[in-house]
Amino acid sequence: MANILEQEIKFLPGIGEKRGNLLTKELNISTFRDMLYTFPFKYIDRSKVYAISEIEPTTAYIQLRGKITEARIEGNGPGKRLVCTLRDSSGSIDLVFFQGIKWISEKVTKHKGDDFIVFGKPTEFNGRRNIVHPEMDPVSESSRDSIPNTMVGVYSSTDKLRNSGISIKVFSKFQHTLLEKVLPQIKETLPDNIIRRYNLCPLKYALTNIHFPKDMVSLSHAQHRLKFEELFYLQLSLLKQKNIRMAAECGQIFKKVGTAFNYCYSHLNFELTGAQKKVIKEIRSDMASGKGMNRLLQGDVGSGKTLVAFLSALLAVDNGAQACIMAPTEVLAIQHYKNFIKLMEGSNVNIALLTGSTKKKERVSIDTGLREGSIDILVGTHAVIEDNVVFKNLGFVVIDEQHRFGVDQRARLRFKSGIAPHVLVMTATPIPRTLAMTLYGDLDVSVIDELPPGRKPIQTLALKESQRYKLYEFIKKEINQGHQAFIVYPLIKESETMDYKNLEEGYLNITENFPAPEYITAVVHGQQKNENKQYDMELFAKGRAHILVATSVIEVGVDVPNASVMVIESAERFGLSQLHQLRGRVGRGAEKSYCILMTGYKLSKESKRRIELMCATNDGFELAEEDLKMRGPGDLDGTRQSGLAIDLKISNIAKDSLILNTARNAAEEILAQDPLLEKQESMIFKRELQLLKETTPIEIDYSKIS
Ligand code: ADP
Ligand code: MG
User: Fold this and answer.
1) In this structure, are 435 and 506 located in the same domain?
2) What is the position in ligand 1's atom list of the atom closest to the CA of 303?
3) Does 38 share its domain with 61?
4) Which ligand is nearest to the CA of 332?
5) Which pLDDT does position 434 carry in this prediction?
6) Distance 661 CA to ligand 2 centre (A)
7) pLDDT digits (tens, 9 = 90+) for 184-237
8) Which residue has the CA at smallest separation from atom 26 of ligand 1?
9) C-alpha of residue 273 to centroid of ligand 1, in Å
């Protein structure tokens, strides 16, 4: 027998063809299952009645009690409506109905003088408060009719639904009908031992109480169970995919530590940090395992990820393979290239640079070098993933600042070679552990949690426009002590022209206040010719310019240890992780560094909070957690760009991290016993995963992210 949950929603009594279509269009509900798993987004205590005078502009759903003192028809044609005035001892409000006018008028007439209980969401129309299509029942009837508990779920709705008579109450009734119909046939989705071990309530109980909670306690049991289940299956699916990949995919075996690695290592003029050593060890062990490496390297800005990547590339070279390091911007690719050349000066490791602006002639010789294998390491921008770039034996790929690359681009690099190369994805946007687990559940994660010694914490402060002169005095003081300063302007796609105007004006203002030849100011932005960009960048990097005026897009990863001041203009327009990234451009030398956030006078609550957080902490992971809490996972820098928005029905990655951890552990334990879920007792998991795949296709193929 077909599963009852797969039935089309129109077959639910009371719904029918027309409403069914509407539910599908408006709320994406097309089957019984969709409906059942559409949960209230909040609950209201229906035992409480508010006074009309208590309504505020921000009031959401509210319950009122009063008499209908007037009922009139307004407008005509499609705008025709019934307007009833509800009055209590504190004031009055209009109740507006577009549908069912006749029926409601009759009800009002019949119960003239009675108290009505009204429930709905106040809005404002033409300066007057009203409630459109509230539930409205005479007190005498409402107790008989209403569901017998006081906690009432509120479901998302749309104007179209409300206007077609699918009020919250009606929607609730559908749920009620549905539950009665399907409950006897609902199959448990978790095995007994898990339910017992993690203290979960049965699925039937959970589904009943999520829609119609008996009380707070039952509701929280229901929520817990459903969140656990959701996160458990998400983790199980990710980890299983990882197992499949591990079983299928072999990797080149790089066992040797040879001359290239040792050359670089012995020419460093500092000691690797403990964290860097630990990560290199992890990478070495992956590379020697015979399995393909898929590792995410997280480390705060300035923690020295580049060097780890480079040393790992040298390991590949020592074992006769080629390596490719891909950076998100040209400026950064060039910087990496130059650093590596300098580190390897005098060795016989051959490093090449390939970007969009590499000249034709050079391009030809690079192509040859890559095919023949005379080039050991290729550094570049996304130009390196073009189809005509062919390696002799690509063994290792590094993707720096991965959040700037699309999933698709990453997948392409990965398939550039017969045996998939080992892949290291580096991110400087610290992803909270919980989110990393969800998004990158199938990658191994390394963390550099230690900064090179001698770094002084960066002092961050916020200034307003009126304090600009103070800012300039301060920058001058720093420059006179031999330091340099960045001044960064926001660049937001939608208002690009305006942003450049800001930058240009800012640049003029700076050159006026910091006149040459005493002060030299360089400028770098996206609309410049490459040579000019390159020239100005170098001017600053070499210390010949004191100030670099730039847009935010340009500077990711730029390393100028002598810079001690980072000024961020219109700081309120940046996200938290971006602010932190920018700040990380300073504080790389031994000098005390400063980050100064210039803001406007009127800040939104969130902007204000971001600025405060920046001033309060230097810890990227802490900021990332806060960011996640403030914005939700789909919005986090980097996840959206890479197409990794995740759609969870009930869990919240930021708030449910404890449940996520438990669910993750549970999934790990199961897979440790049965890596591909082939045993008889794993049938239930297999069934659910299959269902998950059919009903909520995860848009991204997680196995190809790396
Ligand atoms: P990120 O992790 O942000 O990419 P980088 O790799 O750019 O950081 O490193 C930041 C700076 O720290 C560079 O100038 C690099 O040479 C330096 N550095 C890296 N590792 C060490 C170390 N162990 N000791 C001292 N300086 C280091
Ligand atoms: Mg970097």
Assistant:
1) no
2) 2
3) no
4) 2
5) 65
6) 29
7) 999 999 999 999 999 999 999 999 999 999 888 999 999 999 999 999 998 898
8) 452
9) 10
Residue pair 402/426 in contact (Cβ under 8 Å)? The answer is yes
451 Cα–ligand 2 center, Å: 13
Position in ligand 1 atom list of the atom nearest CA 561: 14
Confidence of residue 44 (pLDDT cuts 50, 70, 90): confident
Region 498-517 average pLDDT: 86
Q: How far apart are CA 175 and CA 249, in angstroms?
A: 46
Q: The domain spanning residue 522 has which CATH number?
A: 3.40.50.300
Ligand 1 atom nearest residue 400's Cα = 4
Is it the case that residue 364 has pLDDT exceeding 60? yes
Q: Which atom of ligand 1 is nearest to the CA of 305?
A: 2
Q: Cα(343) to centroid of ligand 1, in Å?
A: 13
* Domain end marker among 557, 590, 617: 617
Q: Is the pLDDT of residue 459 over 80?
A: yes
- Indicate the residue among 448, 476, 503 that finishes a domain: 448
Considering the domain architecture, whether residues 395 and 424 belong to the same structural domain is answered as yes
- The more confident residue out of 87 and 143 is 87
Structure token pair of residue 584:
């990380």
Does residue 372 sit in the same domain as residue 498?
no
What is d(CA 212, CA 214) in angstroms, rounded to the nearest whole number?
A: 6
Q: Using the mean position of ligand 2's atoms as its centre, give its distance from the Cα of residue 400 in Å.
A: 7
| Beta bridge pairs of residue 118 | 64, 136
Domain shared by 63 and 14, yes or no:
no
pLDDT of residue 703: 31
DSSP per-residue string spanning 557-622? T---TTEEEEEETTGGGS-HHHHHHHHTTSS-SSS--EEEEEE-S---HHHHHHHHHHHH---HHH
| Among 276, 307, 398, 449, residue to substitute to test ligand 1 (most atoms within 8 Å of Cβ) | 307
- Ligand 1 atom closest to the Cα of residue 339 is 16
Q: Identify the residue whose C-alpha is closest to ligand 1 atom 10.
A: 302
Ligand 1 nearest-atom number relative to CA 306: 6
CATH number at residue 18: 1.10.150.20
460 alpha carbon to ligand 1 midpoint, in Å? 21
- The candidate with the shortest Cα–Cα distance to 295, out of 400, 451, 423, is 423
Compute the distance between CA of residue 294 and CA of residue 422 in angstroms, rounded to an integer.
6
d(C-alpha 612, C-alpha 603), whole Å: 12
The CATH number covering residue 65 comes to 2.40.50.140
pLDDT of 647 > 60? The answer is yes
CA of 403 to the centre of ligand 1 (A): 20
Instruction: Domain count for the chain, please give it.
Output: 4
Task: Provide the edge-to-edge strand list for the sheet that holds 122-125.
Answer: 122-125, 128-132, 91-97, 81-88, 62-74, 115-120, 135-138
428/185 Cα distance (integer angstroms): 49
Model confidence band, residue 403 (pLDDT cutoffs 50, 70, 90): low
Which tokens sit at 135?
């539930």
Q: Are residues 522 and 553 in the same domain?
A: yes
Domain that holds residue 351: 259-448
Query: 379, 559, 581: which to mutate for ligand 1, most atoms within 8 A of CB?
Result: 559
* Ligand 1-lining residues (CB < 6 angstroms): 270, 272-273, 276, 299, 301-307, 428, 452, 557, 559, 561, 588
Whether residues 428 and 486 share a domain: the answer is no
Interval 53-64 mean pLDDT: 84
| Angle, alpha carbons 351-352-357 (nearest 5°) | 160
